[in-house]
C-alpha cells in the first residue's frame, strides 16, 4: 500500500514562499511514476495544482502557473512543490497524489485520476 506524507506547510505572509515535500513509501515504481499536487479549501472542491508525468513532463493549473513549481527526486522517492508569491486565495490544505490512472498528461489535474493520497499539509496566508 502506497503511503504519502506531506510536510512543509505552515503560516506565511502575503508574498511569501513555502516548499512542500511529499515522501512516498510502500510504493511500486509504477505507482509513483507520475505524481501530483492538489489543494482543498473549506467548502470548495479539490483543485489540481501541478502534476508530473513520468520523469519530466509537467503541467500546472492556471491559478498557480508561474508561481508554483513541481519537482521530483526519484532517489528520495519524494515530490516537492515550491510556492512563491503566495496570496490569501492560496490558503488551503495541500495534498500529494500518486497512483495515476489517467491515459495521458492532460488528466494530471483531475483528482478522480489518482488512487493514493496523503493526509495533507495546511497552508495559511495572512495579509
In percent terms, what proportion of residues is strand?
over 45%
Question: What is the β-strand count?
Answer: 11
* SS-based class: mainly beta
Morphology: globular
Mean pLDDT: 93
Count of helices? 0
Q: What is the CA-based Rg, rounded?
A: 13 Å
**Helix proportion of residues, in percent?**
under 10%
How widely separated are the two ends?
40 Å
The main pleated sheet reads as:
7 strands, mixed
Notes on the structure:
By secondary structure, the chain is mainly beta. The protein is built from no helices and eleven strands. The chain has strands at 3-7, 10-13, 18-25, 35-40, 47-53, 57-60, 68-73, 78-83, 92-100, 114-117, 121-126. The strands form two sheets. Strands 2, 4, 5, 6, 9, 10 and 11 form a seven-stranded mixed β-sheet that branches. Strands 1-3-8-7 form a four-stranded antiparallel β-sheet, with no helix packed on it. The protein is globular, with a radius of gyration of 13 Å.
Amino acid at each position: 500500500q502506497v503511503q504519502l506524507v506531506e510536510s512543509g506547510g505552515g503560516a506565511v505572509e502575503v508574498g511569501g514562499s513555502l516548499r512542500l515535500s511529499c515522501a512516498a513509501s510502500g510504493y511500486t515504481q509504477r505507482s509513483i511514476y507520475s505524481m501530483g499536487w492538489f489543494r482543498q479549501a473549506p467548502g470548495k472542491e479539490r483543485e489540481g495544482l501541478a502534476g508530473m508525468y513520468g520523469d519530466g513532463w509537467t503541467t500546472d493549473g492556471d491559478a498557480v502557473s508561474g508561481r508554483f513549481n513541481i519537482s521530483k527526486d526519484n532517489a528520495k522517492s519524494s515530490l516537492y512543490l515550491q510556492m512563491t508569491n503566495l496570496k490569501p486565495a492560496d490558503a488551503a490544505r495541500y495534498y500529494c497524489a500518486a497512483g495515476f490512472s489517467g491515459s495521458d498528461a492532460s488528466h494530471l489535474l483531475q483528482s478522480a485520476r489518482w488512487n493514493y493520497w496523503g493526509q495533507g499539509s495546511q497552508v495559511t496566508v495572512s495579509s
